[in-house]
Design goal:
The complex is a heterodimer of chains A (100) and B (712).
Chain A lengths: L3 H21 L3 H26 L3 H31 L13
Helix pairs in contact in A: 1-2, 2-3
Chain B lengths: L16 H16 L5 H28 L5 E11 L2 E9 L1 H31 L5 H21 L3 H19 L14 H31 L4 H8 L4 H18 L8 H4 L5 H10 L4 H8 L1 H4 L3 H23 L4 H21 L3 H43 L4 H17 L11 H4 L1 H15 L5 H16 L1 H26 L6 H4 L6 H16 L12 H10 L9 H23 L12 H4 L1 H7 L4 H49 L5 H24 L6 H21 L1
Antiparallel strand pairs in B: 1-2
The chains are: A mainly alpha (100), B mainly alpha (712).
Chain lengths: 100, 712
């Protein structure tokens, strides 16, 4: 059986990749994918603990996260489509009309 | 005197409806009257008054069935403070029911008459919308008068007393923005104010009487006051009764406060008949009769009351001789007749006074309403004549132009109430003529009309107890017959002195039928109290309340003298005005032989002018002085502007100099604003608009919090 630490390390690596993607990429779709990566890193950590602790509540939790992520994808993609319609670009640095 | 303790049988529980039926009537007219036709409005008001009459009849029947005992009907608690208990209680006894019957009976007839009268009046004055208001006021008056006569304490009496004063004011000033000839003017509203202010002087006396009464007896209730009156010094009673006389002089138009009543003729004629002849002005007589037990204790006060009445009776009768306005003659006649009543109750002849009050209500209402019918007839005639002229207009343009101008001028000055414009109305208005004749004969005191019996009873009492009063009243009776004769000859006989009189038209049945009822009452009203054994009906009836009633037999000497005087006066009036009827534009035939005496009568003995010189003008000067010098120059200019505003300015100059204000407070406020601005400028840079930098902040925040949680 794979020790739980390995899962955690994999999860941490995936999460860090996601954070880095959000921070350095300007393409909204890529940022979006990075966010998905972070969510799934978290999911991986939760099911790993769930399996290690022999508790199902973690797995149920993950189901919720997946459902919410699906909803979030729908909203997020709709936003990106609308932004593209008005700006003809999905570069997030151009979305700065609210700057102080 | 006792009040029946046990629940009295009969209809006494209906007493509050005396007040509330007219109030319901006026509320209906206020709320729904806008949608009603004139007939419905008039019917509602008349029914309300008629229902009050029915209640009065039932109450009178109940009193008679209960052998005249006074019954108190408690209705509502009013003021309870400590030991002081002032309630609204109805008192039903023979005296109050007599007044109720007169007020609601004559009142109902006048309501019916007013339907016809006001129908025409609002059209002459060009404002039909006021029809409803008139009936609302009239019903309010009936309600207030009922409060006055049915109260069981001086306080409730005073409430009604003030209420009828208000209604009088409202109705005198009914056409408040014009004069009696419908020209724009404040004459009517000035007359209303005069009535109100003069009454206020009288009410002041009444109030003082009330204060003394409360101070001496601790109560306003009739029975309690009368019982306690025996145990206080007579001086207190004298003070109470004399101050009360001031109130009586105000309300019942006695010297020196009678001046408002002639001016009150500015109101519509039904008002003159109902309020200023038949009912409200008799409130003073009722008050003295109600306070009989107080007056009986102090003969000095009685003497003053009797003399006031007698002098007023004579004085007003002389003025009536010199008047030209048909209603003014009747107004002075009313003052004179009220003088008779006040003299009677002053002498202690309460039954005679009340008797005259009742018969006078009949025949004076009849006279006023007939005068109203005459005025309407003349207005119709004038309208007719003017209309005829316009028809002629097309025939000769050149010649008629001048005449039409003349006619228009005429239109402005034509006074339908001026007897000099009348004459010969006997032929054009026969019904009104005969009704007027009945009223005149009753007022002049000709056998067997009602006025003969009641006036004779007063004269008889006077001849027995107060010879001076008797002489004064007899002369007044002579003048009464004379001015009424003069009026009849001038109005109804001779030839028409104005085209309006020539074209006058008779009034409709809605006007004449109530007059016929009143005429029947004027003819037969004497039967209430005939001076024969077994016929002193009113005397016995009032005896329940007044206790000591003298039933005098007919004295042929007194009756004979008064009849001879009246007939002589009518004969003289015929010699002067009847034999050679007045021509148009001719001056009064009495003017030359009487000289300055007639000028005095014509000008009301200059009493109004005297009041102006002695009271009103000095008062105006004083108010001018107070307003100009004391209020404006001293109080406004000096105290306010110089002292208060000056001091304030001085202080503000110190407080608001450049160091304290601009360099202190202003500088601080500006610094606060600048600091906020620069701070926000610095903070604004954080909001750089790059989503990724926000994300970095979130990450750093999360790292910080998680780091803190881990390393804690």
């Amino acid at each position: 059986m794979v020790p739980v630490e390995y899962y955690i390390i994999l999860s941490a690596i995936l999460f860090t990749i996601g954070v880095t993607g959000v921070l350095i990429r300007r393409n909204a779709l890529i940022i979006f994918m990075s966010i998905e990566l972070m969510l799934n890193a978290a999911n991986l950590a939760i099911v790993a603990f769930s399996s290690a602790l022999k508790s199902f509540s973690g797995q149920i939790f993950v189901f919720f996260v997946i459902a919410v992520a699906a909803a979030e994808v729908a909203v997020g993609l709709a936003l990106i489509v609308e932004i593209f319609k008005s700006k003809h670009s999905i570069d997030v640095d151009q979305m700065s009309s609210l700057k102080g | 005197m006792f009040l029946s303790e046990a629940t009295p049988s009969g209809f006494f529980f209906l007493a509050p409806w005396l007040v509330f039926l007219p109030v319901i009537g006026l509320l209906i007219n206020i709320i729904f009257g806008g949608r009603f036709s004139e007939k419905v409005i008039g019917t509602v008001a008349s029914l309300a008054s008629g229902a009050a009459f029915v209640v009065s009849v039932l109450l009178a029947w109940s009193v008679a069935a209960g052998h005249g005992g006074a019954v108190s009907v408690p209705f509502a608690e009013w003021i309870h403070i400590g030991g002081l208990e002032l309630d609204w209680t109805f008192r039903v006894d023979s005296l109050s029911t007599t007044m109720m019957l007169v007020v609601s009976g004559v009142g109902t007839l006048i309501h019916i008459y007013a339907i016809g009268y006001m129908h025409e009046d609002v059209r002459f004055k060009n404002d039909p919308g006021r029809f409803r208001r008139f009936f609302v006021f009239l019903n309010l008056f009936i309600a207030m008068m009922m409060i006055l006569v049915s109260g069981d304490s001086y306080l409730m009496l005073f409430v009604g007393w003030e209420g009828v004063g208000l209604c009088s004011f409202l109705l005198i000033g009914f056409w408040y923005e014009m004069d009696t000839l419908a020209r724009p003017s404040w004459a009517n509203s000035n007359a209303a104010k005069k009535a109100f202010v003069t009454n206020r002087v009288g009410d002041f006396g009444f109030l003082i009487a009330g204060f003394i009464m409360f101070w001496a007896f601790g109560s306003f209730q009739f029975d309690e006051v009368f019982e306690a009156a025996h145990s206080v010094a007579p001086g207190v009673i004298v003070a109470i009764t004399l101050f009360m006389l001031v109130g009586v002089a105000g309300k019942s138009a006695q010297i020196p406060l009678y001046v408002w009543l002639p001016d009150a003729m500015a109101g519509p004629t039904p008002v003159s008949a109902l309020i200023h002849a038949a009912t409200m002005v008799t409130a003073g007589v009722y008050l003295v009769t109600r306070s009989a037990e107080l007056y009986m204790l102090v003969p000095q006060a009685q003497y003053i009351v009797a003399m006031t009445g007698a002098i007023t009776a004579l004085f007003a009768a002389t003025i009536a001789v010199g008047q030209y306005d048909i209603k003014k003659v009747l107004a002075y006649s009313t003052i004179s007749q009220l003088g008779f009543m006040v003299a009677a109750v002053g002498m202690g002849a309460f039954v005679a006074g009340m008797f005259h009050l009742v018969t006078h209500a009949f025949f004076k209402a009849l006279l006023f309403l007939s005068a109203g019918s005459v005025i309407l007839g003349l207005e119709r005639g004038h309208h007719h004549a003017a209309h005829g002229h316009h028809d002629d207009h097309g025939k000769g343009k050149k010649g008629k132009r001048k005449e039409e101008h003349h006619e228009e001028e005429h239109h402005e000055v034509f006074d339908p109430g001026d007897m000099r414009n009348m004459g010969g109305l006997r032929k054009t208005m026969p019904v009104t003529f005969w009704l007027y004749m009945i009223g005149t004969l009753a007022l002049a005191g000709i056998f067997p009309f009602a006025g003969f019996w009641s006036k004779d009873e007063i004269l008889l009492d006077a001849s027995l107890h107060y010879p001076t009063v008797y002489v004064l009243l007899s002369i007044a009776a002579f003048f009464t017959a004379f001015y009424m004769g003069r009026q009849i000859w001038m109005v109804f006989f001779g030839e028409a002195r104005h085209e309006a009189a020539a074209h006058a038209e008779e009034s409709k049945p809605i006007i004449t039928v109530p007059l016929m009822v009143l005429a029947a009452l004027s003819l037969l009203g004497g039967a209430l109290n005939l001076p024969f054994e077994g016929f002193h009906n009113l005397g016995h009836w009032l005896e329940y309340t007044l206790h000591e009633v003298e039933a005098l037999p007919l004295d042929l000497k007194v009756a004979g003298i008064s009849t001879v005087l009246a007939l002589t006066a009518i004969l003289i009036s015929w010699l002067i005005y009847g034999r050679n009827p007045l021509k148009a534009g001719q001056i009064d035939p009495l003017k030359r032989p009487l000289g300055f005496l007639f000028t005095g009568m014509e000008n009301k003995w200059f009493v109004d002018e005297g009041y102006f010189a002695v009271i009103i003008n000095p008062f105006k000067k004083l108010s001018q002085f107070l307003a100009d010098v004391v209020d404006w120059r001293f109080w406004h200019d000096f105290v306010h502007d110089t002292i208060i505003a000056g001091t304030y300015n001085w202080f503000s100059n110190i407080a608001l100099n450049v160091y304290a204000d601009q360099k202190g407070i202003d500088a601080f406020a500006n610094w606060l604003g600048d600091a906020t601005q620069s701070l926000s400028g610095a903070m604004r840079k954080v909001q750089n608009g790059f989503v990724r930098s926000y994300a970095l902040s979130v990450l750093l925040g999360v790292v910080l919090i998680v780091g803190y949680l881990i390393l804690k």
